Amino acid sequence: MSNYNLKEIDTRAPKDVEKKHIKEATEKIVDDLNELQNLLYAEGKHAILVVLQGMDASGKDGAILNVFGRMNLQGVDVVSFKVPTAEELSHDFLWRIHKNAPAKGRIQIFNRSHYEDILVTRVHGWCDYDLAKKRMQAINDFEKLLQKHNCTQILKFYLHTSEKEQQERLQERVTNPQKMWKYNERDFEEAKLRSKYYEMYQDCFKNCNNPEWIIVPSDQNWYKEYVIAKTLRDTLKKLDMKYPSLASEKPKSE
Questions:
Q1: Is residue 6 part of a domain?
Q2: pLDDT at site 160
Q3: Is residue 30 situated within a structural domain?
Q4: What φ, ψ does residue 124 adopt, rounded to 5°?
Q5: Can you give the residue range of the structural domain that contains 179?
Q6: pLDDT band at residue 247, thresholds of 50, 70 and 90?
Q7: Number of other CB atoms surrounding residue 147 within 10 Å
Q8: Would you say residue 107 lies in a domain?
């Protein structure tokens, strides 16, 4: 995608798609993913890193549950990167990230990621442009390392929600007993900084684009889940994986 102006990118599904058909397609894709993930694990030659980014309440947790929730837990991991601990701050910013990179045969999901260190830090002025530029180069080198030296396929999704949808979801955390555990009063303050976040995300998309970011219209969860599931399914199929035979040797670690 060459246009990364988030204000110009729709947050809703294309008008020519029908919810019923998309949900049916997603159900079939999720079934396919179960087999493909098993094949990935058995063959042990490739790794998958799924990066989920987005504004608060963009639906990262729901995407993880509904796209990856039926997979064999032996081959799927999820890590959520929150405010760094004192130990993490005493290392370089990628230290806590690299030790969570996926091993061959596994799918690793980052619920927020290394990109927080050039997003929220810049929005709040904790990281200036010069430092951000160095961090972006480090991120590019890190992702290149995973791709070239550990056969890692990296899928980077930005879950794109409208301001109206975000406010409705945040308010639901105040009124819905099943969602109250997600409530954080700071989320409402962060939401006011949407324009600043857009600016930093767009700079991130422009400078850290190998592999390119996938901007996912996410106001409707059924479409968001379809895009993520289909992208993952298509990526796994292109690997042309095969189950090892009795005579096959286990892949040697590099």
A1: no
A2: 98
A3: yes
A4: -95, 5
A5: 19-238
A6: confident
A7: 16
A8: yes
Number of domains forming the structure of the chain: 1
CB 118 within 8 A of CB 139: yes
Average pLDDT over residues 174-200: 95
Provide the CATH number for the domain around residue 154. Answer: 3.40.50.300
Tell me the backbone φ, ψ of residue 178, rounded to 5 degrees. -75, -15
pLDDT given for residue 248 in this prediction: 64
Is 243 within a domain?
A: no
Residue 4: per-residue pLDDT? 85
Span 201-220, pLDDT tens digits: 999 999 999 999 999 999 99
102-105 long-range Cβ contacts below 8 angstroms, 24+ apart: 102/47, 102/48, 102/49, 102/77, 102/152, 103/47, 104/44, 104/45, 104/46, 104/47, 104/150, 104/151, 104/251, 104/253, 105/40, 105/41, 105/42, 105/43, 105/44, 105/45, 105/46, 105/47, 105/75
Q: Give the count of alpha carbons within 13 A of 172, CB side only.
A: 12
Q: Is 210 exposed, middle or buried (0-12, 13-18, 19+ CB in 10 A)?
A: exposed
pTM, two decimals, is 0.94
